[in-house]
Amino acid sequence: MADTAALSIAETIRQSLARLTPTERRPALDLLANYPVPGLEPVAQFARRASVSGPTILRLVAKLGFPSYPDFQKALRDELELRLQTPLAKAAPPDKRSPAPARDFIASYGRAMIANVERSLAEVPRPAFEAAVELLADRRRRVLLIGGRFTGSVALQFYLHLRELRPRVQLVSGQTATWVEHLLDIGRQDLLVVYDIRRYQEDVVRFARQAAGLGASVILFTDQWLSPIAAIARHVFALRTSMPSSWESFAALSALTEAMVVRIHERRWGEAKQRMERLETMRGWLNPQ
Hints:
Layout (H helix, E strand, L loop, with lengths): L8 H8 L5 H12 L3 H4 L2 H8 L3 H10 L5 H15 L21 H19 L2 H12 L5 E5 L4 H14 L3 E3 L8 H4 L7 E5 L6 H12 L3 E7 L11 E5 L11 H17 L1 H18 L3
Parallel strand pairs: 1-2, 1-3, 3-4, 4-5
Helix pairs in contact: 2-5, 4-5, 7-12, 8-12, 9-12
């Protein structure tokens, strides 16, 4: 399979949908919706699940770049292991007792981070980006933002910018028990922006599924292995987060978020300018010089 280290199987499927036949697209979409379970089943069982023939499954696997179904399943199992990695399971720091070659840690780490950002932004589908911006710039829509234990910080970053540019923006945070209050009035005109990267947070996944079930459109920022939320998201942005360390990098998530803020500002400059001017006036009331 070409470039297996770069693209996850889920990403490869999403990018291949346009060139699949309608029959091949059925198992592909079923795999994305229940990722990765169908692909770990025997060919006959996967075929029955998707209401296609066994040869259709094998043709799909071949189009995805695998020489055989066992090779495809092995790649899925390897990817599943990567999706579930904890910081402790990733590369351990070097043994301090052994001499290490002289190197500039900040420079080498920075290069890896910049590579993540550059590749991520290059791979962002431009039509999806513009479509997401158009939805987020629509003042008639309420926007809710949510993230996980760590990615919540990027959701907060987006929230702080969006609330200056447009009304009706809410951050879903705090104790999980209070999240249901945000679901109470969700409808078809609402947007949910979700940040979810590997070890995908189950309560965030459940919240997104509930919101989508109530009619909300979901915009997902995730990693290359794709959160389960991708199956119900209207727009998915799969970004590079893996680093040569025990921790994920949020640089690409933050970079695309900033790009969206700027683009929304450009698309709604007149309204945003008036709103920001009113905000500055009100801030002056609270903090007179």
